[in-house]
Amino acid sequence: MHFSEDDLRQALKRKDPGSGFTQRVMARMEQAKTEDAAAMKGKPAPSAKKSNGFFAWWQLRPAWIVAVTAVLLLGFGWAGYQYAEYRHQKQAAITAAIHEKELQEAERARDQAILALQIARSKLNHVLQQTQLPADGNDKIRRQRL
Amino acid sequence: MEHVAGVEDDRLKLALTRSAQGDSLAFAELVQEHQGMVFSIAYHFLRDRALAEDLAQEVFLELHQGLDRIESPAHLTYWLRRVTANRCIDQGRRKLRRRELALEDAPEPTAPSQPADPLLLERLQQSLAVLPEKQRLMLILRFQEGLGPAEIADVLEMPVNTVKSTLHRSLADLRKGLTRKIREVRYAFF
User: Fold this and answer.
1) Ramachandran region, residue A18 (left: φ > 0; alpha: ψ -120 to 50; beta: rest)
2) Is B48 on the interface with A (CB under 8 A)?
3) pLDDT tens by residue, B105-138
4) CA B40, B41, B42, B47 torsion: positive or negative?
5) Taking a C-beta distance cutoff of 8 angstroms, is the pair B63, B80 a contact?
6) Nearest CA to A3 among B27, B174, B20?
7) With contacts defined as CB-CB under 8 Å, which chain A residues touch B39?
């Protein structure tokens, strides 16, 4: 079956929406204006009421995802910082304890060394005194003393 | 003729300016001027008078909200075609009942008709209704509005070559569909 482009133009020629179309558009416009004014005063428009049901929060899911991700990131960041701080303090305490112990041991070793030197000095003094005794004395007695 | 077109353009420009300033009468003039175009695109696409009128009203409401963005009468026509086309596609997707059913319910012609026969026109409209959305819209813009492929491509945001090939395929599909329908009628009749 053949048809020409003119037939197609004829089939698709403009239709009249009927009388009163403009008036109906203007009426709807006025109604929309009234609804907008009501919404501005704080009253929810009927159409808005329909869309904002119990699951209205789900419509904002990208915002929720961003918010939850931000909270989780902040939480994990804070927890990580706290843990690193705790580890640092613990390490510092251990280092300080080791240092203290080493210091005490060094002091003890120094005291022992001083004591040993004092003993050695007193022994040497005693030997020196014995060697400086007068020569006219009894050699026998001197030997016994030594 | 050019003088008349210029006067018409000035009148629409004035109406556009006054509408943007809140003049309801000027806006009504714009509606009056473009209602045929908007309603017809919607009607030929949806094949439902009530739905088409509702859609056309919504297009004009959207226009009223965005009047300050319209720069000229030509821009207004382009904007109306584009918004109507987009809304038609949205509406077509929402519509559960497809036009195929209406085509089956339509009365059958008793014999092949001569060109320009009202029955042929009716058949053409019915065959158009079963074409895919984009093809239907392209044919409406091409043969109702008389737009060229470049203008259609602009309105539907598609490459020009795609529009050209789709138009060609749509006409072929339309011819094929019409021939098949007439054959079915002949078999039923004899």
Assistant:
1) left
2) no
3) 443 443 444 446 778 888 888 888 888 989 999 9
4) positive
5) yes
6) B174
7) 15-17, 21
Residue type, B43: Y
CB contact A19 to B (< 8 Å) = no
Per the structure block, which two tokens stand in for B61? 């409401």
Interface predicted TM-score (ipTM) of this complex, two decimals: 0.74
Local structure of A53: helix, strand or coil: coil
Token readout for A20 is 């009163």
- The answer to whether residues B39 and B56 touch, using CB atoms and an 8 Å cutoff, is yes
- Tens of pLDDT, residue by residue over A89-139, are 999 999 999 999 999 999 999 999 999 999 999 999 999 998 887 765 566
Cα–Cα distance, B99 to B58 (Å, whole number)? 23
A 10 A CB-CB count for A101 gives 10
Q: Does B161 touch chain A (CB under 8 A)?
A: no
Q: How many other C-beta atoms can be found within 10 angstroms of the C-beta atom of residue B151? A: 17
Give residue A55's Cα distance to chain centre.
34
CB B129 within 8 A of CB B47: yes
Alpha-carbon gap, residue B83 to B63, rounded angstroms = 9
CB B62 within 8 A of CB B114: no
Any idea how long chain B is?
A: 190
- What is the number of helices (H) and of strands (E) in chain A? 6, 0
